[in-house]
Design goal:
Helix 5 links the parallel strand 9 (150-153) and strand 10 (189-192). The two termini are 14 Å apart. Helices cover 16% and strands 24% of the residues. The chain has 232 residues and is an alpha/beta fold. The chain is built from six helices and 13 strands. The longest helix is centred in the middle third of the chain and has 9 residues, at 137-145. The chain has one domain: 3-Layer(bba) Sandwich (Glucose Oxidase, domain 1).
Length: 232
């Protein structure tokens, strides 16, 4: 077996001050020990399992749904295709028509990566936190009918922002469950907050690659951060 020509990191960095879902507590990373003082260096971290680049399991929205460890490791890697949906405007939906335009490029059991360009807003910005493109219920159902392995997006979620905080109201009336459930009920794994899909596409409208997005070896969780990357 030969090494890939190129490895592209699809993961956002995990660091203090990183964006998290606006109703979550901030990510916390503290250095508790220093080698110069204690003879070793150690950190303590506190975060939700749906923080940074991460995957969802059916348990995220289905009370008796499968957790991540109910799937084989092979579920979190595989061939697939990135498709170019740019330009997308803030709060704009990803529709059936958007994805159907690439139907001839998509194969059963593919990992489908949706490039909207939203990683350019990564940070504590209105666009990244609240106004990311999202799947309509119909588009999510269409993805399920394509018999995909996973669907990746650069936004904070495959579903839109429907909550309210002091500085920002809902961005859509499409409930998060409406975007997630068609995927999760059919064993399609959402991969959220990916980046660098433009580097996968290299100016093309679509490009096939081999994608990896393995979760941590948790038991019984609805999600996990991942180190996602692509082989070209």
């Amino acid at each position: 077996m030969f090494p890939p020509e190129e490895i592209i990191d699809l993961s956002n960095p995990i660091a203090d001050g990183m964006p998290v879902w606006p109703t979550f507590p901030p990510f916390d990373l503290e250095r508790t020990d220093w080698a110069a003082r204690d003879g070793f260096t150690m950190e303590r971290t506190e975060m939700r399992t749906h923080t940074g680049t991460h995957v969802d399991s059916p348990l995220h929205f289905i009370p008796e749904g499968r957790s991540l460890d109910d799937f084989p490791l092979s579920k979190f890697m595989g061939e697939g295709v990135a498709i170019d949906l740019t330009p997308k405007e803030p709060e704009e939906a990803i529709t059936v028509d958007d994805i159907e335009a690439f139907e001839d490029e998509i194969e059963a059991d593919d990992v489908l990566m949706l490039h909207t360009g939203w990683d350019e807003y990564h940070g504590l910005t209105e666009e990244y936190l609240f106004e990311f493109p999202y799947l309509t219920a119909e588009a999510a159902q269409y993805c399920a009918e394509l018999d995909l392995k996973a669907v990746g997006t650069e936004g904070a979620s495959v579903g839109g922002w429907v909550d309210e905080v002091p500085a920002h109201g809902p961005s859509t009336d499409v409930g998060a469950d409406e975007s997630h459930l068609p995927l999760l009920e059919n064993g399609v794994i959402p991969i959220e907050e990916v980046r660098n899909l433009d580097r996968v596409l290299k100016g093309a409208e679509s490009r096939r690659a081999y994608f990896f997005f393995p979760p941590l070896n948790f038991r019984g969780t609805s999600g996990s951060p991942v180190r996602a990357f692509a082989f070209l």
